[in-house]
Amino acid sequence: MESRVFEDNKKVLGKNTVENATVIRNDSIFQKKVRVKDGIAQALINICASFSILLLVGITAYVFYHGIGVIDWQFLSTTPSFINDTFGIAGNIVNTLYLIIITLLIVTPIGVGAAIYLNEYARPGKIVKIIEFTTETLSGIPSIIFGLFGMVVFGSLFGYSIIAGAITLALMVLPLITRNTQEALKTVPDSYRIGALGMGAEKWYLIRTILLPSAMPGIVTGVVLAIGRIVGESAALLFTAGSAQTLPFFGQYGEGLIEKIGQPGGSLTIQLYLSMSNAEYEQAFGIATILLIVVFIINYVTKLVAKKLQTE
């Protein structure tokens, strides 16, 4: 008798389960009718995405079409010379490398250190909010204002020189590295901190061996984005670093490489501006092509490094 009642209840429950599953399946989002507003929104999103892609392709194709024919070995390996009737951007390439290296040497320790203090040491409160607000405001200041400030302050100390331009650029990209590092540290789980501190690890040992390696993909991304900002900057450098195109004098012991830091040096973007001002459009498009290639390489390297660090 009990077994028969059990079987009857099982059949009823099974029937109800099938009916409930059918109702759920019929009421699922896959069976619902697509609304007209959703279709219009999706179409607008697709149009905007397509427009962005076409805009990028159009600008790149236009610049490459006018500039790729100018690029050759002489264009990349020589400096302008009225005597030899040549034009090259070797000096501008070297100056750009100087600016990138010196700026990163100045700003990376400061930016990463500031992010570590804000995220790991400072207590949440008004001071932290003021610092974060100041950092965000600093990132929104126009570059021409940084150039005027750099000319008045650093220009009076170092004159028109690469070091003056590099310090000015360091102020510009400091918020970028600080915020990226801070956000990268926030993504590290708190269990890492609790576990390390529970095992008796010191604060700095925890940061050095656990937090920084875990946040390294985000830190590297911020540094590479800063490089892109440095490469593309012109207004601030025009007032601080000058527009000289000379190569450094190596000397017997390479002392010219150090002396070059205190000398004027125009970057690729400065030379692009000067070429356009002098109506030398072929040279300008050639430099623009080189800059686009550099930007593509930076973006590609960023993705590779971030992907590799995330898998380790």
TrEMBL record:
Subcellular localization(s) per the UniProt record: Cell membrane
- A family per Pfam: BPD_transp_1
What's any GO biological process attached to this entry?
Answer: phosphate ion transmembrane transport
The principal location of this protein is membrane
What does the UniProt keyword field contain? Cell membrane, Membrane, Transmembrane, Transmembrane helix, Transport
Q: Describe the location of the ABC transmembrane type-1 domain by residue ranges.
A: 93-302
Among the entry's GO cellular component annotations, what is one?
A: plasma membrane
A single GO molecular function term of this UniProt record: phosphate transmembrane transporter activity
**Bilayer topology term:** Multi-pass membrane protein
Q: Where are the transmembrane segments?
A: 43-65, 97-118, 130-151, 157-177, 210-231, 284-302
**Keyword match Transmembrane:** yes
- Name the family: Belongs to the binding-protein-dependent transport system permease family. CysTW subfamily.
| Annotated protein name in UniProt | Phosphate transport system permease protein PstA
Q: Which organism is it from?
A: Candidatus Fimimorpha faecalis
Q: Which gene encodes it?
A: pstA
